[in-house]
Amino acid sequence: MAKLFKWLTMAVLATMLTACGYNDFQAKDEATKAAWSEVVNQYQRRADLIPNLVNTVKGYASHERETLESVTKARAAATSFQVTPEVLNDPQAFARFQQVQGELSSALSRLMAISENYPQLKADTSFRDLQSQLEGTENRITVARQRYIVAVQEYNVLARSFPTNLTAKVFGYAVKPSFTVENEKAISAPPAVNFDK
Q1: pLDDT class for 17, splitting at 50, 70, 90?
Q2: Is the pLDDT of residue 152 over 80?
Q3: Which residues form the signal peptide (predicted)?
Q4: Which of 1, 20, 47, 66 fits 167 for a cystine, CB–CB 3.0-4.6 Å?
């Protein structure tokens, strides 16, 4: 009888452990880390393209010094940001990461706008190749971010659902921040269209 009780107790404990979601947290946490690594990888790829792009533009538009410097500064800020796994669990650090990458995107947009003023630059093969690589990288960033958003969503649903939310509290699995749009209020407003101009 004691052996039967012991086996029943072990079976109940095993069932409780499988229902608590601990292993699911391990899997989802690793999935978010892997997705995050891909996001960082694509941002690094973009940062690696920038020096060549700046040097190519510099050859044609050297008097656009302010824009070239802003791109260089934004790249320096983006690459100096320490990206650690802890960033995933710290909403302030995550927001800072997004801000730094947003500033780099903005500076790159200004640089690309300048190229419109220089037909010889737009015709340069190196510039076109770099521009194409940059566009491809921006697309990869978008895909990587989307995958990360999905991984975080799955993790956060697990962390907030009953009974796995109890496991999350016991083992310290907090809800993870996800990517957001910087100007969310501005883009939610309908665009103003004026045909009088």
Answers
A1: low
A2: yes
A3: 1-21
A4: 20
Residue closest to 173 by CA, chosen among 181, 161, 188: 161
Q: What is the 3-state secondary structure (H, E, C) of the chain?
A: CHHHHHHHHHHHHHHHHHHCCHHHHHHHHHHHHHHHHHHHHHHHHHHHHHHHHHHHHHHHCCCCHHHHHHHHHHHHHHHHCCCCHHHHHCHHHHHHHHHHHHHHHHHHHHHHHHHCCCHHHHHCHHHHHHHHHHHHHHHHHHHHHHHHHHHHHHHHHHHHCCCHHHHHHHHCCCCCCCCCCCCHHHHHCCCCCCCCC
Q: Can you give the pTM of this predicted structure?
A: 0.77
- Domains in the chain (CATH in brackets) are 24-178 (1.20.1440.20)
